[in-house]
Amino acid sequence: MVLPREFFARSALEVAPTLLGCVIEHETADGLVAVALTEVEAYAGEADPASHAYRGRTARNAVMFGPPGHAYVYFTYGMHYCVNLVCQSAGTACAVLLRAGRVVDGAGLAAARRRASTPGSRDLARGPARLCQALGIARAQDGTDVCDPASPLRILPGALRIRPPALTGEITARDGATGSADGAGYGLVSRGPRVGVNAAGEWPWRFWLTGDPTVSVYRPHTPRKARPKPVAAAERADGTITL
Description:
The structure is a single chain. The chain is mainly beta. It has helices spanning about 5-10, 10-20, 105-115, 130-135; strands at about 25-30, 30-45, 70-75, 80-85, 95-105, 155, 160, 170-175, 185-190, 205-210, 235, 240. Strands 1, 2, 3, 4, 5, 6, 7, 8, 9 and 10 form a 10-stranded antiparallel sheet that branches. The chain has a two-stranded antiparallel sheet with strand order 11-12. α3 crosses α4 (about 130-135). The protein is globular.
């Protein structure tokens, strides 16, 4: 049973922590790979300077402005794909980036796609690019309806149940959180700043299962150093070259 569209018809900040423990699976000609989500990030469209939709609709981000429950896939750094799940009502462009997870089915296929990883490695889907590699997600999956049971890319509820998230303080989750737990038997869900984001990176809109080994390493945004421009050579009248 897939998650209903109503699940995504909320703000990205509400949806994000409740996605932890849910399972995203992709069925291809090569087989099926399923990943239980352990880390996500929320993005709030035109109200969020870190969102791809901050400056409005483009051909690249058009899926974000559509109905909830669809996959928004983008290409980054000229080498990686990342997948988001669209939230709220059509026109708002809110989405949740899937940052990391634990492979729960199809580990052999996921490892083959990742090449350097073994089936039991915690790194199979640790980080948004690796997650897409393990699942076989690329630009062709952009716009896929993950709430359609017949879709090859779909999202299913997991064993994890999340209490309504608070905007401050610690969030707790019951049943199945892998990591530390409090005295009442609740698994702990942490929140903190987003990873590698230039604008609004300090917003605590990243959520993860506390202590889970598949959660990616936190890295703040580091501005790229400008490359020195090459010095143009000039040819003198006598035929010699000066720099």
